[in-house]
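Weekly puzzle thread! Below is a chain. First person to post its structure in token form gets bragging rights.
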Amino acid sequence: MSRIGRQAVAVPDGVTVTMAGQTVTANGPKGTESLKLHPRVSASQDSGVLRVSLATTDKKATALQGLTVRLIQNLVTGVSHGFTKTLEINGVGYKAAVSGSTLTLNVGFSHPVLLTAPQGISTTIVKNVITISGTNKQMVGQFAAIVRSTKPPEPYKGKGIKYSDETIRRKAGKAAKAAGGAA
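Winning reply:
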């Protein structure tokens, strides 16, 4: 059994956490994020440490306790350091451009693909590398997955959009037909 739910969440310097009812709000140098807690768990704060406790002692509440601890840790990390996902574009003529909150991808279709980043998510492009960053881990990962899904990497030449730390299992192409073989 995991004991993540019993861990305390340390609040770093420069981050303030406030609680109002079942809502936890964190303010930091990167911005403000809030989280609404499930009714089966509650949070308490004392001397720069947050603890999550159970309202009921059933199995579902125990699982929610561990989940809530991790969500609060992501909340605090997001407003203090932020989250980043890096994607690479591979392929001849594949390009990306950003203007405001709109990401334009030219990835082999007859038309450019336009993706609008959610509020709080910033996108930067350097050569063939797309960097997606923000304070909300779930939104950063979700937008990165949407960008990747427009043209996932194919296994023969590796063309497409992939995460920078992702390895693509490559396949060998068709072998040439043996000379003199039956057709």
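Puzzle host: Confirmed. Bonus trivia for everyone else. The two ends are 60 Å apart (CA to CA).
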